[in-house]
Protein: fructokinase
Organism: Sphingopyxis bauzanensis
Amino acid sequence: MAPMDQIAGIELGGTKALAVLARGTEILASERIATTTPDETLGALVDLLNGWKRDQGYAALGIASFGPLRLDPDAADYGLMLATPKVGWTGADIAKTLRAASDCPTRVDTDVNAAALAEWRWGAGKGLDSVVYLTLGTGVGGGVLVGGRPVHGALHPEIGHLRLRRASGDDFPGSCPFHGDCAEGLLSGPALRARFGASGATISDDDPRWSFVAHDLAQLIGALLLVTSPQKILIGGGVGLGRSFLLERAWQHVVTDLAAYLPHVSDADPVSLIGLPALGEKAGPLGAIALGEAALRDARA
């Protein structure tokens, strides 16, 4: 019999997948696998899950994946990767492939919805009703949590593909293969490389082109404040965690742009509304664990 307090989680990202075995927030084992082709990556994850199931056991599996994904459990293509900029992954059957290795209660959601769930349960969103988790990394995505539940609908929030007002004088066309200058095409790691001609991590904080990036980030934050009315926006991902100075610059734009329309956005201090994830890089894998715990609770209900 599988240990009833152990959960397996998969965080499937655009550049890497992280598999964890955990008891609550205590990570018992973890493995990192490069995200290459679906056959290679999912195959390696299946082998790992099979080994953990055989040697240590777990009661449920949570899968937190980049998207877009079909999340309606009644849909014929539930857990399937829809059209994605990640080459070769459109049509990959994420849920079916990984669930088959586990034969236990399983829940699938986007990586950003899962990260929002983890921060709500154990991190910077604890005690709040509404949280947005925004990730700036290989792509740009946003998870929206209301009343402790990730927001779903016809699909799930696709915040990274919002097209927003551009800064005057900014002629960068954007890098998204679908929309050009949507949020992902302007703020993701690949977008920064295309804008700067080198990795954003190598560019000095004083480079004047960061002012355009700060403007774009401010446009995205302002849209989230107006549309989702979150009590907290948490910004993670490699770009978000690695370039925290952008937050202060972007916030100045947010305050100016909203022009005192929102009473809770009335000064230059973003701490109460905007922040970094308390769980840091663990938000994603612990989000997968939170999904597995939810699947187990539903199975026992």
Q: What stands out?
A: The chain has two domains: 7-111+281-300, 124-277. DSSP finds nine helices and ten strands in the chain. The first strand starts at residue 7 and ends at 12. The mean pLDDT is 92.
